[in-house]
Specification:
Radius of gyration: 21 Å
Number of domains: 1
Strand content: under 5%
Number of strands: 0
Largest sheet: none
Structural class: mainly alpha
Order of helices and strands: HHHHHHHHHHHHHHHHHHHHHH
Length: about 425
């Protein structure tokens, strides 16, 4: 499976050390995102390159389990980071807009992705709905380079950044009901599937996740406040505390049979409100850099190493049409239709920017393995991985260019709206 594990470790973490040393220059100077660079390194160490890794998640259950658990851990850590990036109190102040993008917005992306799959690939209806559900959530791992760093702070308004962060953190876990509904209908009658979906998926897996996540985040927040109030206590490391919280929440909720990814976001959101306001900016910046480069990017290397090249080639021109349709029609039309209902998209360019930067990544990989494990359908892995690969490439090469152009539009619009002398 892995020819030389220590050589793989050297390549992977050597790359991460180089990215950390460069401090974002790859993204800002060469207009190539760090996730894309990591995926390309994965291709190099995979079967089509040096052959250091031979994993086939599409046919080998052990390889599928490795990819699923790696994606699950990366997501738990990434959604915690997304919650920490939010301004304190933002979720409570903007819950109406969040309901729009997590309700009609996500349903629209699910239906659009399902329709695109059916029209381009001609797969059975149930399979199309599974693929549409797996590609509906946006990815916090791929979103981070667009929403953090100096360029993002200059170009993207704070409210839009927070909205994209919150969406990518929450919809990864909330996609579970969309994925499970067609799976249950495939193996049960409509009545039994509906009952199982409501009781087990909605009430237990989602409800349990939200409750446990909030409770654990509250306990850790109380502990931090108690410790920081003591004169003899050192200041706690946010990276250490948040990492431990995200993994403990993931593990605890998984033992209970709940949605650990949603729980990790809930725990991170509650913890975020416990950070002293005067320390938020400094500690969040260190936190995001450490989490993003060390914990989230390795899953992109793994993806590059397990790309099913033969499966992609077998899709032919239909695969190209599917990839183009997913990139252009899955999300952009939904955001344009819902623009007036979201306070962070007052102008059309803001809706276009937010609609484009909803990448598909680790969440889709995780749900692809879940679907394959529960149904035995081997057709989903080449299709969903193609959507992920297309998203990594498209968003990886357009991130810097589009973000800079968006920032220039905002500066021009601001200058044109300012009253001129004598007016």
């Amino acid at each position: 499976m892995i020819v030389e594990p220590w050589l793989l470790v050297f390549c992977a973490f050597g790359l991460l050390a180089a990215l950390g040393t460069a401090s974002g220059l790859l993204n800002t100077r060469l207009s190539v995102s760090e996730p894309l660079a990591c995926a390309l390194v994965g291709v190099v160490v995979g079967p089509v390159g040096f052959g250091l890794v031979h994993l086939d998640p599409g046919t080998d259950p052990q390889s599928a389990a490795i990819l699923r658990e790696a994606a699950r851990i990366a997501l738990a850590i990434a959604v915690t980071a997304a919650a920490i990036r939010l301004p304190q109190g933002w979720l409570g102040a903007h819950w109406r807009g969040l309901l729009v993008i997590l309700g009609p917005g996500m349903l629209g992306m699910w239906l659009a992705g399902s329709a695109i799959t059916a029209l381009t690939l001609g797969l059975p209806v149930g399979t199309c709905f599974m693929i549409g559900a797996a590609t509906a959530p946006t990815d916090p791992v791929l979103s981070a380079p667009i929403l953090t760093g100096r360029l993002a702070r200059w170009a993207v308004p704070e409210q839009l950044t927070a909205a994209l962060n919150a969406e990518s953190g929450m919809n990864d876990g909330l996609a579970l009901p969309l994925v499970m509904l067609p799976i249950l209908l495939l193996g049960h009658g409509p009545a039994d599937a509906g009952l199982e979906w409501v009781v087990h998926v909605l009430l237990w897996e989602i409800g349990c996740a939200a409750t446990v996540g909030v409770a654990l985040g509250w306990l850790v927040r109380k502990g931090l406040r108690w410790a920081e109030a003591r004169p003899d206590a050192d200041r706690a490391s946010l990276v250490t505390v948040a990492l431990a919280l995200s993994l403990a929440t993931l593990g605890g909720v998984r033992l209970l049979g709940g949605d650990g990814i949603l729980a990790a976001f809930a725990a991170g959101a509650v913890l975020n409100n416990g950070i002293p306001s005067e320390e938020v900016a400094e500690r969040q910046e260190r936190f995001n850099e450490a989490f993003g480069r060390f914990f989230d990017l390795p899953v992109m290397i793994l993806f590059g190493a397990v790309i099913p090249w033969q499966g992609w080639a077998g899709l032919g021109w239909r695969g190209l049409a599917f990839a183009a349709g997913i990139l252009l029609l899955r999300r952009l039309p939904v955001w344009l239709l819902l623009q007036r209902f979201m306070p962070w998209t007052r102008a059309r360019p803001e809706a276009l920017f937010g609609g484009w930067f909803g990448p598909i990544g680790a969440a889709a990989l995780f749900y692809a393995m879940e679907i394959q494990d529960r149904t035995g359908l081997e057709t989903v892995w080449p299709v969903i991985s193609l959507a992920v690969g297309a998203s990594i490439l498209a968003h990886g090469v357009t991130g810097t260019l589009f973000t800079r152009s968006f920032g220039q539009w905002r500066r021009h619009a601001f200058r044109s709206e300012r009253p001129q002398p004598g007016e």
